[in-house]
Amino acid sequence: MKKSSQNPEKEWKWPLGIFTGYSIFVIGTLSFVFFTFTQKTDLVAENYYEKTLTYQEQITRMQNAQNLDNPLTWRQTGRYLNFSFPADQAVAGLDGEIIMFRPSNSDYDRIYEIKTDPDGLQQIDAAELNPGLWKIQVAWNSGGVEYYREANIDLR
Fold it and tell me: What class, spelled out in words, does domain 48-155 have in CATH?
């Protein structure tokens, strides 16, 4: 009779190691897949493809806003965001909207209709907006000419 040079206890350790390694890999992969499917994804715009097709019009609106003698300005004073539109446009009449876009969570996005006083001023109560980074997008029409301006603002 030949004696086995291997110990029976050592023979079964390598299959257990392979099984453990494979199990960890499968559990890790499934956990990652579950994690990715439960993450919320926000699109900047629901119809982003259609918007890319008409982007030249957007560039024209942005150039119109840049070419104004008295451009649109805004600043935060206390709990309000004060928008100052060109006074000559306010007299002629303004039509448009102010979009407060929150890049981190689309649930916080707000859209305000432009309603200025005769001097071209409009206030938005910033107290209803969560502190943090916001993108302001202003699109308006005055005298048949369209304008657009956007910038980032950090609300406190």
Answer: mainly beta
